[in-house]
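Please check our next protein.
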Amino acid sequence: MCVGEATPDGLHVLRGGGYRLPGGGGVQYDAATADGTTRTATLRDGASYADGQKQRTVRAGQRITVSGHAYTVSQVCSYRVVLEPRDAKDRAAAAAAPESLESKGGEADNGLCFSTNPSVLAAAAKGFPAKGGTLSVLRNGGVTRFPTGLSITVSYVDTTTHTAGFGANCAAIPVAAYKDVRVGDTVEFAGVLFRVSGLSDGAVRMERTSA
């Protein structure tokens, strides 16, 4: 599921979604490949999709430059890529405390949606059920909203193939888009890990597996 190690200062770029980077610019986790011995991720420049964006295939441990800033790909997972800023100023910018932990909507929530600050991550985590608890997200256009600006929506549930698609938005950016997910798969939202525990006509259920 993962190659490499997630670092405390690492930026979590979720599968199918984008991330606004400290210092400007952005990056998306566009696609993943795995053959049993290696795992790679395809990254696109820009926090959201646009025609003509540069893309590259990366592996854990690789050094890359995005929007003029240097990063190390510290971990590649099926559900996320973790980028470690190599410049101390970028690490400090990502960890800076926002003026408020209250969501205001749009780009004003950058400091809540794209942050490694412990207080921000703790506030986001409190919005979910406790470890071992179940988060249920309704399908048919229902949107589940959380205090730090995150919203999760189920796009489809296919009870024939037993798969589902769902994603998340934050600060006006699609931050995750998980497609063809099955029971047992791991996904992440706002730094919190979940295991997909059930799929039905009406909802996707996820068990929180991290603290």
About this structure: The longest strand covers residues 26-34.
